[in-house]
Amino acid sequence: MATLPRATKPVPSVGADARPRSDAAFDVGLHSSNAWKEHLEHGSLSDDEPEPSDNLQPSDERVKAARALYDFEGKAEFRELTVEAGDELDILKEEAGDGWSLARASSGEIGLLPQTYYTYTSTFLYAPWAVHGRKEPSTSTIAPASSKEQLESEALSIVPQNTGEWTNPFPSFRQSLLGGKSLNRFSSFVTSGAEEWVLKGYDDPPESVASGSSHKRFATDDSVDEDNRLSRLGLGEADKHYVDAGPTWQSKVPKFRVLVHSPSKRTSGLSGAYTVYSVTSLFSPTTDECYNPDNPPISPTRITVQRRFSHFVVLHTALSRRLPGIALPPLPEKQYAGRFSADFVEARRGDLERYIGRIARHPVARYAEVVTSFLGCESDTEWKRLMPDFLAMPAAGPAFFAHVFHPAFNVDVDDATEVIDRFSRHTDAVGKGTQNLRNVFGGIREARLEMSKAERLLSYSLLSLITSTPWSSAPLAGIDEDDEDDAPPQRNGLLNEDGAWCWREGCQDCLKLTKVMQKTSDALQNVADLYDDHARRTQLTTHEALKNVAHPYQSYEGIIETHQSTVSRYKDALKMGKSNDEMAARCETVLNITMAEMDTYHDQKGEEFSTIIKDHLDGEIAFYGQVLHRLKAARCTFEAPYFDELGKSPRQSSRHERELGAPKLNPPPLPQPCPHVYDSTPMRPVSVAIQEGIGALLGKSQPGRRGSVFGRIWAE
């Protein structure tokens, strides 16, 4: 298509300290016909854009004036634009991919800018087009200085041109500007270091190479021979990880169990009050140690340490930096108020136990140095000394991928393409189904609470009947209010002197009947208590556990993104033949890692759902067993010889008779699970406050947020 020529601003020369700028492809003459034809051979701007087809038409995006809303310091290597709040901008391409726009500053520098960092200041209309004989108004903003009449006369002769099959006129950033790097530097493929590993590899320090830690693939047959492999690759360093045929992670240490228990409140002069949890690791002995018919079974080895929530933050931060290629469970959020209430402390304890339990079950994460120190360092002084070292450790980046060893030719590109599609759809469906299950289970808990109220209603009604005492929350059971007086029931003939439900004095049959009916009323109250307690405690535990498996797609989204991007690079490398064999081999390494992570999810999903369902069934069995026990005990009172013994003494009032005037039919609301990190919730987590507080201290703010500072933010 043809466009009007426009005036260009002078571009300053690049000096020694000047910021790198886009090449000529991004010059202001980009919209001219020559620039259009010159860049037809280039690829798309983003990995996510579709391949060109006959149905695609050229983009009709136009230059728009805008103003920067916030300061943004761009990365030169990613061709990003550095702006200050209030700077005037020209938006050359609004949709450059992944939430970025191509913008030009007033200095003439052109680069990428996030879409949320600017706002349009006016809408510019282009030169008039001949559309059905009508002329639309035009401005001279994008046209060279000329008379209005001349501009309109030239515009009337403009006819859209057919330039053949269209492809995106912008050059490929990966090929021309970024050295093959992705446009979106916030994707997991980039932030994990997988992209850098695929493109450039990783050079181990000389001492590491000498010790045999340089990355290489080993024969598939050797993957099942642990002794042979370890003798060739070196023994058990914590930063070396092995993938076996499958692909599946090779575990260096056996699984163990971790309990988080016994929370207690502490006070510090520096950080104020906080909660300390006991973290106990249970290491089961091996089969050989247990098998001894002459001795009793050996109890697990226990190691207990004291940890606070901020220590879990250190653990998660260090793991995220040192193991960028695995899917770590999200750490529970902090919260502002109520963090010392019994309900919240118990919910936090359960969240932390499930978090560290997942870490301990992961075949790679459980032998990380920070994990072993976190679980095994019993000296508080030593642990406090180690924490700054763990936080200061550099991000592993491509080094993580360089230290993963796997069988050669362990991945087929077609299988890798198919498996990620199935895995993505499966985790998305599991998340939606589990969310629905969580909602239904919440309704089940509410129904149990209603059953508790119903059992109490039945108990109060039965007690009111045998005592002839009306209760305030229900209609009078056959008693006319006009017939009532202040005389006791015994004088009205409703009860006899023994408290029996009879007008006759000394009636033992009615006395025994009254007593067993009263015991039945008490049993129904016990059943109501069981329903209430079951909904508040046992079922709450299951409800909490369900949220842990409710977001598999979000948890593995980074793995999915990395896998998809690597498959794309792998296909490109295979097309280029032997010249890119090394890149293809590095792509295989990343795919081995991502597919091993999918295999880990497969195993953990089975374990977690099996545990949840078994615990639920065990809880239901125990609950109904207790209900059955209470009902059987009430039924036995109607049988001899117990029934015969009840007529020998007067009836004693039930403790629930005092509740007839104010029955307990309005229990407090059920406690709900603390929201998951990925749940949509109106509660603003403390982590947001931390970010805003730091931003306020540094004089910076984030889009759409107000900076604020909170005292003692790390009090937990």
Automatic annotation (TrEMBL):
Q: Give the keywords, sorted.
A: SH3 domain
Chain ranges of the PX domain: 255-381
| Family annotation (PROSITE patterns) | PX, SH3
The record, for SUPFAM superfamilies, names: PX domain (SSF64268), SH3-domain (SSF50044)
Instruction: Keyword check for Metal-binding, yes or no.
Output: no
Give a GO biological-process term.
endosomal transport
InterPro entries noted in UniProt: AH/BAR_dom_sf, PX_dom, PX_dom_sf, SH3-like_dom_sf, SH3_domain, Sorting_nexin_WASP-bd-dom
The segment(s) forming the SH3 domain are 61-123
Q: Does the keyword Signal apply?
A: no
Protein's name in the database = PX-domain-containing protein
Organism per entry: Rhizopogon vinicolor AM-OR11-026
